[in-house]
Design a protein that fits this description.
- It is found in: Endomembrane system.
- The protein is mostly helical.
- It folds into two domains: 3-63; 73-114, no CATH class.
- The chain has helices at residues 3-32, 44-63, 73-83, 91-95, 102-114.
- Helix 1 runs antiparallel to helix 2 (44-63).
- The chain is rod-shaped and about 95 Å long.
- The relative contact order is 0.11.
- The mean pLDDT is 81.
Length: 123
């Protein structure tokens, strides 16, 4: 996230905190005054400030987010294979003892098929 997007996000959070504080003060003020005829709804400026601050925070977070991953599982898997084990979330599982190595089994099966399928497969 860049400096500008962080600044936008922090500014939006400050505005949101101010809107929340203003809403709290408004409800405390009108809870002490017992006027049955008046409405205790929030003023429009507090509601607008809260909505604008949410839009500003959302904008800062969206523009500061990392590049999205591909939607297709196969494209993501190709990228992981190209980059090695640095991004592979399953690298830890594949390293454990007695984990079935799919790539080795595929290679073994392909070699067995090329040899004419005469020899039995290993283990």
């Amino acid at each position: 996230m860049g400096f500008i997007t962080r600044l936008i996000t922090v500014f939006g959070l400050v505005l949101l905190a101010h809107a929340g504080y203003s809403a709290h003060e408004h409800t405390v003020l009108y809870s002490n005054v017992h006027l049955s005829s008046s409405s205790t709804a929030l003023p429009q400026d507090i509601v607008i400030e809260a909505l604008v601050s949410l839009i500003i925070v959302s904008t800062g977070l969206v523009f500061g987010a990392e590049k999205l991953k591909p939607v297709s599982w196969s494209e993501w898997a190709k990228e992981v294979e190209r980059e090695g084990d640095t991004r592979n979330p399953y690298a830890r599982l594949e390293e454990r003892y007695s984990f079935w190595d799919v790539k080795a089994k595929r290679k073994e099966f392909a070699d067995w098929m090329r040899s004419g399928a005469d020899a039995p497969l290993k283990g």
